[in-house]
Amino acid sequence: MKTPDIIRMSVREAKRFSIIDQVSKRQIKQRKGAHLLGLSTRQVRRLVRRVREEGPRGAIHRSRGRPSNRRTEPKTRAEVLKLCSSTYGGFGPTLASETLAERDGIKISPETLRLWFIEEEVTYRRRKQRPHRQWRERKEHCGELVQMDGSHHDWLEGRGPRLVLMAYIDDATGRVFARFYEYEGTTPALESFGRYARRYGLPQAVYLDRHSTYKSAGKPTIEDELNNRRPQSQFERAMADLGVRVIHANSPQAKGRVERLFRTFQDRLVKEMRLEGISSLDEANRFLARHLPKHNRRFRVPAAREADLHRRVPQGIDLNSILCFQEDRVVRKDGTVAIDGGFIQLRNPGRLRKVTVERRDNGRLRFSAHGRQLSWQKIARRPPGGRPSSPSESKKPAQNKSKSPWRQFSTTFYSQQTIEKLKRERASA
Prior knowledge:
- The chain is α+β, with helices and mostly antiparallel strands.
- It has helices at about 10-25, 30-35, 40-55, 75-85, 95-105, 110-120, 185-200, 220-225, 235-240, 255-275, 280-300, 320, 390-395, 415-429, and strands at about 145-155, 165-170, 175-180, 205-210, 245-250, 325-330, 335-340, 340-345, 355-360, 365-370, 370-375, 375-380.
- The chain has a five-stranded mixed beta sheet, with helices on both faces. A four-stranded antiparallel beta sheet has the order 6-9-10-11, with no helix packed on it.
- Helix 1 (about 10-25) runs antiparallel to helix 2, helix 2 (about 30-35) crosses helix 3 and helix 5 (about 95-105) packs across helix 6.
């Protein structure tokens, strides 16, 4: 039996093939596929023809691994940046592009100039965006847009801890998926999305608010500005890795469907859990698993179009590896990595300068670099022969080695109940 060929695709190409395949099978229209992919209908027809002739390989971009034929010569780029820093200092990309074409005969796209300005830190005045709001209809397909949010409420009416309901509602059908957690944060958001994806698939887009869990408030680093990207939260990073578009609402009214769902649940669900005598997190989640099918049978509406745009999780992708905390750490010359006040010794690190640390929800750590998992072991202290100590370091007073959980608060995530318990213990000590 002949072994099938393995075709490597990026997440973007896998998403393109999923849409093109549905267009080819006449499950969705060409115009809808073009809208979802951001292409013209002519390009969609071309991709459909290529996929029919070549199979999944036809969805791969033909320019992969090849330099662009439209790249600008370095000499021209240096001349343009010199003019924009001196003669046309303070010009925005659009005005600079028009002026260069008119006065110097150099035709450069405004977007190309914008990227060059970011890379070379050329300052110019930016126009402030104005808020835009309008009423919109439901999406046509299931999985095209999913609204998600967390609701802080006394769901157990004092019989147990205060909980947060993480809810997902499909914009086209109103189908609901939800689960209770102790708090609203990155770990519950990633864990709940993983449960949603394993049950229904990956949606095309998620619509949520500007909570710090979903939208990073950090300032861009020099590397971010050079790469023309903004800081991402852990949730945004995970969605980008899975090819799911993140849309941030500017007001609670913009995501009114999930807000109205919470009002319904805060009335109906609270009363039904009161009748069942629910008084803990585990009991609430077990009750919710029984309640949601009944709710969806009553309130779900049929989508305008039959095709389901949810994508199955591609084979070879580990959701647990993506839906977790990830951070880059510097590898020292002796092959150690400093983390959580201790040291990790990598085995055979080679010439690695940085590694990616994954923090799973069960507390386990995983180290990887360039897609390769690394073996490691925890050590009490760095081996001798590492970074030499300076005279100033030897004069520093010894640090307090207390194992109090308060010293590790900055690197450990506690629930609100645990925090209150620690405060009471500290007050009584």
